[in-house]
Amino acid sequence: MEKLQELFVKSVNHYFPDEGEAWLSKLPDLIYYCEQKWSITVKKPYSLSINYVAPAVTRMGEELVVKICIPGEGFMNELEALQLFEGKGMVQLVDWDEDYGLFLLEKINPGTYLADVLEDEEACEIAADVINKLHKERPKQTRFIPTVISREQNFKRIVEKNPNGLGPISRDELSLALTIFTYLNKTTKKQYLLHGDFHHYNVLESGEGNWIAIDPKGLIGEREYDLIQYMLNKLPEQGAYDVIRKRTEIFMSKLDISYERLLLWGYSHAVLATSWSVDGENYDERFLNGISIFKSLCESSAGAKLEEVYLND
């Protein structure tokens, strides 16, 4: 087995401080287990984040993908999401192993990332089409998939642990964003099965102009919320405001969603996403920039400061 990618090792240890190192040491054995279990040969991995993902081929020459995860809540959420989406706008699940956190998935060819589509408006229209295929009304029963309320609870813990603010986010900004996040959850009327991490690098081309989502986290909530991570990604250093505004217009034209709630979710999630990215003095500047952009769009739409509307008591 080749030396593991440095950023991959760092990310695994950052997000899984308790079990990451031990899991990394077991990867060669897990890869061998996959090869024996499914009669496949695992090839050189893709560029890795926090899971080990690599192309594989069966003895009959069929191309597949192996994804090795740390077993636990995240794995079970993704497994249930893949099962519930049933391959509609989503990569097909071939097999899995709950004990070891393993997925065997269809291989999407050519597998071009949506991020590689140079024209941003074209990419956004494709994203909207994928979302339309993907989203379905909340299933009557789910075993593991959390709701957006779980993210609100996570947000509350962040605010409580950081009474003076977190990184570049002030105490007042955290408080306002949490207030709006809570308001949106309380006033949600219809819930859907969401991707949970929908962005340019989780949508791949599968030929003939068809595009497929991958790597669902699995989430239950409003459709608007599922668009925000996409809106915050792949932004230019200059002109990000206009890009987000245009993406908003495209999503509004192609999806049955609320403009006001889309912007409010955008602002509140941008604050949450920025807080997740804080690591010492480092943080994601794109997400931080998204806070002011969404706040400006919200206030332009409402004709008032967010503080005046949501902190007036």
UniProtKB/TrEMBL annotation:
Pfam families: APH_6_hur. GO terms for molecular function: kinase activity; phosphotransferase activity, alcohol group as acceptor. GO terms for biological process: secondary metabolic process. InterPro entries: Kinase-like_dom_sf, NH2Glyco/OHUrea_AB-resist_kin. It comes from the Bacteria. Keywords: Kinase, Transferase. This is Streptomycin 6-kinase. It comes from Alkalibacillus haloalkaliphilus.
